[in-house]
## 1
Amino acid sequence: MARTNSSRSSAASTLAIRDLHVYYGQSHALQGVDLTLENGVHAVIGRNGMGKTTLCNTIMGLLPVQRGSIRFNSEELVGLPAYKIAGRGIGYTPQGRRLWPDLSVHEHLTLSQKPGGSWTSERIYDTFPRLAERQRNGAAQLSGGEQQMLAISRALLQDPRLLILDEPTEGLAPVIVDHLQRLLVDLAAQQDVAVLLIEQNIAVATAVSEDVAIMVNGRIDRVMPSAQLAADRALQERLLGVGRHSHEPAAILNGQSVSDTKSDQTTATPVPSPSIAPARQQKTSEEENAADQFFVPATKWSRESWVYRQATRQQNNSGERPVPASSNKSVTTASSRSSVTTAVTSAISATQFSASSSTILVAGTFDTKALELGYIRDQIIARGLRVKTVDLSTSGQPSSVDIPPHMLASYHSGGANAVFSGERGASIREMAIAFAAWIVRQHDIAGIISAGGSGATALATPAMRALPVGLPKLMVSTLASGDVAQYVGPVDITMMYSVTDVQGLNQISRQVLANAANAMAGMVDANQKNPVKVASANQKPGLGLTMFGVTTSAIQKITSLLQDQYDCMVFHATGTGGRSMEKLVDSGVLVAAIDLTTTEVCDMMMGGFFAADEDRFGAFIRTGIPYVGSVGALDMVNFLSPDTVPAHYKGRTFVEHNPQVTLMRTTADENARMGDWIAERLNKMTGPVRFLLPEGGVSALDAPDQAFYDPAADAALFDAISQRFETTANRQLIRVPHHINSPAFATAVIAHLEDIQPAQKETRYARL
């Protein structure tokens, strides 16, 4: 149990906190916290900025205590350094995971394992089979869920008696959340480790703990039975703000929406400059359209994700609010977050990026990088272009730039207090949300440039990703020589390595920053003088197609037959390719898709390097555009050089595609698992769907006399999809007795596209 006034003595408690006070400068962060933890899992929940992460860091000795006591197994921790506290038997998984990006999964576990402890690498792999599959992958190559599993495993390998988890389910898909929830229940049942769970997901917090402590303004406001809180929605709204602000667009971070609400917080509304529309001012027509296009209630507080489908004025003239596409709990949190991101992008893309746009944004943390950002600004102005400076600082220092931090913070759905919380990591995250919410309301952006280290990169790139493809976006970063996938995502952000740190001006930094400024000025100047013609009255509708080297013949045949009536956009299925196509689907650029090559699902499920994320097919679920799909290249998992293949795949069938890419044939069991997952996703699509199964083979290597020819494995894939697929008048599964690269299969694909896109069929025949 977790109590504020326990009847048991502190000596009998695993953790006893009494009258704990912590300050950030003059800000009183923890204001007399009292908490007693005995055994099992104990949840502490509350809005952002209430002091939960501060509490965790204080327990671990990372923050100084002004007054109070923290006793662990009767021993006082206050005043001990962090390494001694960890050595007493407390494991900590911080918010944000903080893994070493260049170390593999197995290297993380080997370094973390305590000799003679009850937790070993083998036990970790049994607990998290996904990590066993990915043990040779670097941490930067893992999905968010896999990274969280690794972060928790690293703490467990210290054989702790108390495990502190700070928001472990944040940003994870429901299937991963379920796995972590089961782990916590198992840990409680084994009674060999107590868990302090800091969580904003009420469903998880109440499911794994007997009591829940609610933190408000730096205090434990109350402790109550989990069942009581879980069953009382009104109480959740009153204590935690659930359901408030649900009319407001969720903000965007790292390609995701976050709408945790803070309705009880009061914020002084800043007075914006005349050139900036405040968050609650009269809405423009574009903003009103955006409000009609999506509606996402708070998702972080609940596992239910209600995604409202886009309803254009042409489709809905009744004046009624769009209806939910699905209320199914299995719609992923990532899906809902992505839908908000892309709906906002779609709403602004028509007005935000055009030849007449004239303002370049220079954005960054002006409290620490004013000299460097000012140098970039001056270089661009010297080219005769207009600049507006945007300060992303979270220090609270006064700012004299065009758009100061307090103005950006007012665009956060939870108000400025959500941004200026006093916790650096949380403040950066929330400022990035506010900046993205601000930027999608601007209508005169010609380009955006930023410079800085990891913090500035995390602050600026989410807003860049919210902007349309084609608008110049440049990030000068100390991280740009490494893996930048998490920053670039599926859009056209240019990353430039700073060489030296972005700290002061010297002969190197001046040249690099000047090159970046001139590159931005050149892109914007060229767009204004000679705009690329991307649309016209006779513009052909966009058609997305997915291709891999082993399905090239099919896509080439299909595009040759459809290029007269469609603007065919082919996406290489290397993980990012699928996400890029789906971003354009969400943005309204594509009217239909031939998703022939779904191989990214293989790598996602089997630990390959070209992996999709859990939101694969999500754009089609959200938008309902006509969809023709197939199982192209689901016979292979992609690794890099042979030494990157996990050891547990030893003895499998491999093909060296080139010295840098090694292909592994999937088995019947793996194919069945993929078939189940794909069918489940297809069943969520409400638009017209035709999914084709090429019984003659799914890739160039899956053919007679080829290395991956395995009819039994293919049959397992086809049967799994067939058994789970829910046929409706709008959703059909078609078996085609041809190889995927045969002309007959291409003909079948086109025929089924025309079946669900009759207008384009008429256009094709008219042109013939």
## 2
Amino acid sequence: MSDDPRVPLLLLPTGVPGLDAVLGGGLLEYSFNLITGTPGAGKTTLAHQIMFANASAARPALYFMVMGEPPLKLLRHQQQFDFFDPAKVGDGIAFIDLSELVVTAGLGAVLDHIVRHVETASPGIVIVDSFQAIVRMALAADGPADLDSFVQRLAVHLTNWQATTFLIGELFPDDLHQNPLLTVADGIFTLTQQVHRNAVVRKLQVVKVRGMAPMPGLHTVRISQAGLQVYPRMSISTNRAERVRPYGRAATGVAGLDELVGGGVPIGDAVLVSGPSGTGKSIIAAQFLAAGARDGEPGVIAVFEEHPKEFLRRASGLGVDLEALERDGTLKIIYVRPLDLSPDETLYTIREAVQQIGAKRVVIDSLSGFELALAPGFREDFRESLYRLVGALTGTGITVLMTLEIVQSATDLRFSPYVVSFLADDIILLRYVEIAGQLRKSIVVVKMRNSAHSTALWLYDITAHGLVVRGSLQDYRGIGTGIAELRDGARPPSYPGLTEQELVVLQALIELGPAPAEALARRTGLPEGASLIVMLDRLVSLSLAVTRTEGGRTVYQPVAQALP
């Protein structure tokens, strides 16, 4: 038997996805609530959704209409939503039209009519829609004194009935801010509809809930065929016990990149891969997800710049079969609605996908596209929203990789007009560089928190096997200008008589040590087949490599030293 003398609060489900979380668990039973908001914000739909979720024949709902709109018209509209259950209408839910009574008999008769219905039906839910209509009609017919009396008497009844009650109305005018309803209400819900240029965003704020600790702030609301969906404002846990910081390294899947980042990306880090258009940011993202699947780490990718099918097709063309991972359930691709997004909606969708497949890796491709997909009002706080989004994911031990398109510069890592480098634990920069009249690509690890990493610039190529890191650019100068030249006294890395591809194979063999042909194909990005074997046999014939047999397969061992 518990020694706690406190009476537990009974909670009702709202039936609105996300709203229970905002409220701290659900709706207080027997509470008196105000639902206020601007026209079109979703007040009536919210009340209906809650009503249909809780009404039953044993504990029916009474919906009093004083807005001048006939019940049939209201039902015609509301029955389009998935939550609408026609079997409950007339049995578990009764709609009572009081609009004519307000005009002909006055507020006193309206209140008496409401009280008689409630005492007869013993309902579990009572809704009066709308308060604003009562105000307008009362001021025209009965005057301010009768209105104040009606409001006070209605508030007393609503708070004393053994029912969960709601009063719906538009935002209160300034001269009603001292209205007693605001004082006696147990819960106040405010819905707003904001227009930014061509975008419309709905938001909900729980202004007041007695005995509960609701989530603070404004929460995005979207109305669809299913009804209202609330996207709770994301937050970063400050409780160390709730935050997870696993140990170990996550393989990038990019040949040669793990060596540059100290053996892989620390698990739970946020990685920013930035670079100009066409440098292979999305390819790194795809290889990162594929490497995770091989290591038993399912992944989620949110795609913003292109349709998922196009993303999958391009990845497949570069040797990364993400479609197979998606079929196996180790990868989930999210294509969030590309217009009027909110950061909270995006995180909610990502979190759902993470929970569905137990994801350990999340990719956002790209931050540039993400910002453009947001409703204009959210772009003002984009940096803060990103901070909360990334922190919420990495706080659960998920490794996050984000791509970011920038204008090429040696020092500028800006995401106009916001600086976002502070979001990342690790930053990998991709750049173009001109060498000997050819446009090449370079990669450098700019930053890794609490981890050793290479600070050199390296050449890389995008091959049929994805992105592959090649040789160092340490013997070149002028890289920051985009035009690189060999330093005085340095010689280009070459072996007499070898083709460019043969040099690539030899360099990979020296880096890997003894290796079979398939390992060299992965490291070089060259197709595994006869052409690669011909190049390896040529290296053997030139005494730059030797072969031996291990486990029934041929292994190539370098004889040459590191390329000069």
